[in-house]
Design brief:
This protein has about 800 residues and is α/β, with parallel strands linked by helices. The protein is built from 24 helices and 25 strands.
């Protein structure tokens, strides 16, 4: 991968962000060395590792690799029998502690979970807890060995403490006693590892001892008194013993660590690699990255891609295709409209993906593995090399044409710019045609209309444009594939206040062909916007239909469940009734046979009949009570009149009131040829329309007309109802309105998706008593209302 493309596409800035997420120095070094791979299987492996680590981070949180350091030098010394110092041993201890922490992090909560690629790395870690504990017990810091490192060291240090106390006691007695007047300062100091007193030079002969040093002025001599020379010698011997014992301890720890040299080396490699993998995952998490699908066919499909170096709250996602239907994409649009960002997004995504990094785009975006990426973006003029902008760009283009092949991705920004527009456009078309013939995937941005025409008239070449809002004079940064960009120079100039006569004169300078071409592009842009709006409306309607469909399915399921429940309960009740009826019948037959054999016993027969009647009354009473619970309104005696139509609930028969209720609520009801006495609680009043004859309207029954006219309105509101609910309610309403002799009514169904209006009209077409119907006019409700006229 050429270094110039890495610099141009700002790949190093992504690497700098990656380094920040690594927790160890070796991990950061791996991140710093990361380059895009050109091997498809290696790229897929790297991407899969990043995805597995990201999944663990979302499930368990992040893991720190701080404490992992490069111990390869220490391991080499161990292999040749060297002794490590406290600092190296502590680094080994920290490495083993991190290994233990990471191995614990890897343990799955579900034992039956399938192992993945990272599990092998986690399982290969060996924390060697015994070695880490021993190092931690013996070494407190890089400068301090624990007293408990060995019994000998503890004994030596105890003796050193006692000797120090004796030396200080002897010296303090001199400082506070006879030698006080000879001292420059009443303190005990140390020179060359020996305890001394600061004696004035003129009293040198008064303090017997050995001179170890003097002050810069010569006025003070540092004398070791004769009284403590022996004690200082013994203290020095103890210090030498301490150093020797510490060497023994470090040697023992080094020998023990040498036994695990290979394990330590493997642990460092594994932890460094895991730190590198989790750094990639943390980078992906920072910009909501996803794993792209990779191919080797040169196909790129980026869905809602966001440039990772731009503010993710402000950047506009773009969709980009290349390599499927066309191998060359020419992007046009205004300056600062997003053309260059689109180029860099494709190039940087390719580099990141091939390096095993996720890309900030929707799931299952697709990238291709390229052997090289070439980019000619930005101003490359060089005063030192005497190169103009055009010359610098052309130098890069010549180099690209020489090195690029069918497994390369080429990106051009403002191809052919910096020279005469006619010659520049001709050169650009020729360069792009050469790359297309060689099958090289290419993206280029331009302002030249000739390149737009080239893309429109050439197979395998597609136009793209960055959308621009002329009303606000701002780019929307949306990339539109298949739509050439329109030049907005005249519109922008007019918005900014350029006089109209100047703009008109400029338009006259355009050739008729250029003007026609711009008009076609303008018409295409208008059509595109219209189609997009219609598509949005269609998608909205689809969502509404889907919601209604789900609601209907839920309602249907609820109805089916209720129906099954009612049928089940009815079957159970019927079975119980039949069983009880059979038992009663068997008992009755048995009693009659018994009475017949024993002779007629009228008293016993009457008792049995009374018992059966009481049982039947009890059952009827229970049924009546159940029916009463279902009644919305209890009947009162004053609600009934002679001739009223009623239903006897216990018998489920219709009849007519032939006698008004008495004080107990009992009355007679005529049910066909049957006339029975029932209680008012067992009755339900039937509306007049139920028993009205079909020709009642023709006869002009005053009673029906008055009762209906007083309750039926001139309008029905069906808003918010499903089509089935609305048609059922409309059917009853039209019957009532027709019986009330209304000439016409209003049906309010709203505009919405039109489904309810269509259902209402289909129903009205089938009604014989409807003369005509029409949509409401202005002031009547427009298309949200239908006016129905009866015959």
């Amino acid at each position: 991968m050429n270094q110039k493309a890495l610099r141009t596409l700002e790949y190093q800035k992504i690497i700098d962000q990656l380094i920040e997420h690594a927790g160890s120095a070796p991990g950061r070094e791996l991140c710093r060395q990361l380059l895009p791979s050109t091997n498809l299987e290696e790229v897929r492996t790297l991407q899969h590792e990043t995805s597995l680590a990201l999944s663990r981070i979302y499930q368990k949180g992040s893991i720190s690799f701080s404490g992992v350091s490069d111990i390869r030098g220490a391991i080499k010394r161990l292999e040749v029998g060297g002794v490590l110092g406290p600092a190296d041993l502590l680094r080994i201890c920290k490495l083993l502690d991190v290994a233990a922490r990471v191995k614990s992090y890897s343990r799955k909560e579900q034992a039956d979970a399938e192992p993945d690629a990272l599990d092998a790395l986690f399982e290969a870690l060996q924390p060697v807890s015994s070695l880490a504990n021993e190092i931690r017990r013996c070494i407190l810091s890089e400068d301090e060995i624990s007293d408990d490192a060995s019994p000998t060291l503890k004994s030596i240090r105890r003796a050193m403490g006692q000797m120090n106390d004796r030396v200080h006691a002897q010296l303090n007695s001199m400082v506070n006693g006879s030698a006080r007047s000879y001292l420059q300062d009443p303190v005990v100091t140390m020179r060359n590892g020996r305890y001394c007193l600061p004696v004035k030079a003129e009293y040198r002969s008064q303090v017997q001892g050995m001179i170890h040093d003097q002050s810069s002025t010569g006025s003070t001599l540092f004398v070791e008194p004769m009284a403590v020379i022996r004690l200082n010698n013994e203290l020095r011997e103890l210090e030498l013993k301490e150093e020797k014992e510490i060497e023994v301890i470090l040697s023992g720890l080094s020998e023990r660590a040498a036994e695990y040299a290979e394990v330590l080396y493997d642990d460092q490699v594994l932890l460094t690699n895991l730190d590198f993998i989790f750094a990639r995952a943390m980078l992906s998490k920072s910009y909501n990255g996803t794993e792209p699908d990779f191919n080797d066919r040169g196909i790129i499909r980026i869905k809602k891609g966001r440039h990772p170096l731009l503010d993710k709250k402000k950047v506009v996602p773009i969709d980009i295709r290349l390599g499927d239907d066309f191998s060359l994409l020419i992007i046009t649009g205004p300056n600062t409209g997003g053309k260059t960002v689109s180029l860099k997004t494709v190039g940087l995504f390719t580099l990141m993906g091939q390096a095993g990094l996720h890309i900030p785009a929707f799931d299952h975006s697709e990238l291709s593995v390229f052997d090289d990426v070439f980019a000619d973006i930005g101003d490359e003029q060089s005063i030192e090399q005497s190169l103009s902008t055009f010359s610098a760009h052309m130098t890069n283009i010549v180099d690209i044409l020489a090195k690029a092949d069918e497994r390369s991705l080429v990106l051009f920004d403002e191809l052919g710019a910096g020279t005469d527009p006619t010659e520049g456009a001709a050169l650009a078309i020729s360069i792009l045609s050469s790359l297309k013939r060689r099958g090289i995937r290419t993206m280029a941005t331009t302002h030249y209309s000739e390149l737009k025409v080239y893309a429109l008239t050439t197979d395998g070449v597609e136009n793209g444009s960055c959308e621009f809002n002329v009303e606000t004079l701002r780019p929307t940064y949306r990339l539109l594939i298949g739509v050439p960009g329109k030049s907005n120079a005249f519109a922008i100039s007019a918005k900014l206040g350029l006089p109209e006569d100047i703009i008109e004169e400029a338009k006259e300078q355009l050739s008729q062909q250029d003007e026609d071409f711009e008009s076609v592009i303008s018409d295409l842009e208008t059509s595109r916007i219209t189609i997009e709006r219609e598509q949005e409306e269609i998608n909205r309607y689809k969502q509404e239909i889907e919601t209604l469909k789900k609601r209907l399915e839920q309602k249907q399921e609820s109805i089916e469940a209720q129906r099954e429940k009612i049928l089940r309960e009815a079957n159970e009740q019927a079975h119980t009734i039949l069983r009880e009826a059979k038992e009663v019948a068997d008992t009755t037959i048995k009693n009659f046979n018994k009475f017949g054999k024993e002779g007629i016993n009228s008293k016993a027969m009457e008792q049995e009949r009374t018992r059966l009647r009481e049982k039947m009354n009890k059952v009827e009473k229970n049924l009546t009570l159940k029916q009463e619970v279902r009644q919305s309104k209890k009947l009162r005696p004053e609600d009934l009149h002679l001739g009223d139509s009623v239903r006897v609930l216990s018998m489920n028969l219709k009849g007519t009131v032939s006698q008004l209720p008495n004080a107990k609520g009992d009355l007679f009801v005529q049910m066909g040829i049957l006339r029975s006495q029932v209680n008012i609680r067992d009755l339900e009043l039937i509306p007049d329309v139920e028993t009205a004859p079909k020709h009642s309207r023709q006869t002009g029954s005053g009673k029906i007309k008055m009762s209906k006219s007083s309750s039926v309105g001139i309008e029905i509101n069906l808003l918010g109802k499903t089509t089935d609910e609305a048609v059922a309610e409309l059917d009853k309403y039209l019957d009532d309105a027709y019986l009330s002799h209304m000439p016409s009514v209003r049906v309010v169904h709203g505009k919405g998706t039109g489904a309810l209006r269509k259902a209402v009209h289909n129903y009205l077409r089938r009604q014989k008593h409807v003369a005509s119907f029409r949509l409401g006019e202005f002031g009547e409700g427009d298309a949200g209302v239908t006016i129905v006229t009866f015959k």
